[in-house]
Amino acid sequence: MGTQIQKFPCLPRIRTMYPQFSEKEKIIADYILEHPEKIIHSTINQLSDDLFVADATVFRFCKRIGFNGFQSMKIALASEIVAPIKNIHETIQEGDNEKEIAEKVFKANIRTLEDTLHIFNENRFTEATELIMGARKVEFYGIGGSGVIAMEAHHKFLRTGIQTSAYTDSHFQIMSASQLTDQDLVILISHSGSTKDMMEILDIAKKNGTKTIGITNFAKSPLSQKVDIPLFTASQETDYRSEALSSRIAQLSIIDALYVNVMAKQDNLGKESLQKMREAISLKKL
Is the pTM of this model over 0.85? Predict the structure, then answer.
């Protein structure tokens, strides 16, 4: 496994795995995230001395995030610092024509999907799928750009036969969340995972015993650490797009994957629901 994972980005992987780390591992993670350039010029002994942890703790941390050891992590980290993803995939140059710009945008989107797949957590995804299937009602919440994703999720899951709804206004979200029970599920979509309105809504849902899933880009965010199941995207800031914009295609892909998994597990029930909807929609066509 280590050889394969070493191809994956180091920093996004640390951010995503952060909630799973022990206190000592979080100390190492924080230092790497804040001072990656120092790591590539340090030995394992220097790092352990600076952080007052054992060499073995640092070594186990490197293994935990998928590397064979400290040196292999340094190599991966150095490549990220020297040649950042955004410079490889979406540096728009003066004089670029329309096709060249389009290609760079497509490549950036492809990389966002690849990075998100690299940090995919199978156990969490399985649990998320089971929560959706076992819920009496599923509600999708998102604000701003994430609201568009919430509406798209509702649009897809209507086909499953599961009772769903989506709200993009914080007042409607609070009102609806206050009526949920421990038989329901809320899926909160927030790139930053630190929106005040979203955290208030999460608290209301949890007070009612409602299960919660969060889709976010930051593993250290308040949202990811308080929901029952966090699902992560991995996106990078680029010259003409914030990482919030880049993450949307990954958010949509997570929703798609959840939807297809639910439909596959429902078998005949999902097929019957989809057929009913297709027949109803056909009435709208000439």
Answer: no
